[in-house]
Amino acid sequence: MQTNSDGTIQILAPGYNDILPVTLVCNGVTISQSATSNNVPSLAITCGQEAAFAVQQTNYSNYTWSLDGLGVTPGTLNENGRTCTFTPESIGNYNLLIVVTKDGLIGSLSVNLMVSE
What we know:
Elements: E1 2-3, E2 9-10, E3 24-26, E4 29-31, E5 42-46, E6 51-55, E7 62-68, E8 75-80, E9 83-88, E10 92-102, E11 105-116
Parallel strand pairs: 5-11
Antiparallel strand pairs: 1-2, 3-4, 3-6, 6-9, 7-10, 8-9, 10-11
């Protein structure tokens, strides 16, 4: 991900040499994406139950979490460095994004959260 001169943010495609790997664990499930894949990994979670996420790489300088509810208030996202929790309050599909940085390098992982009853 990079910020362009006009202030827009550009997500770089996987496979760049300066992309840091990002692997998440959520409630015992490991989530990652190969550097050559354009597929967004998906995770099924239950409405009303907390999902706890942790980045496995512990040596990054910065961890930034965001949640796109696609126009809906999806629930509560509590972030704390390399970990965050999400308690979904609405059924639907949401996008969770984690961006990491270290020594001028950047990495990211987007996960499609499929929330059901």
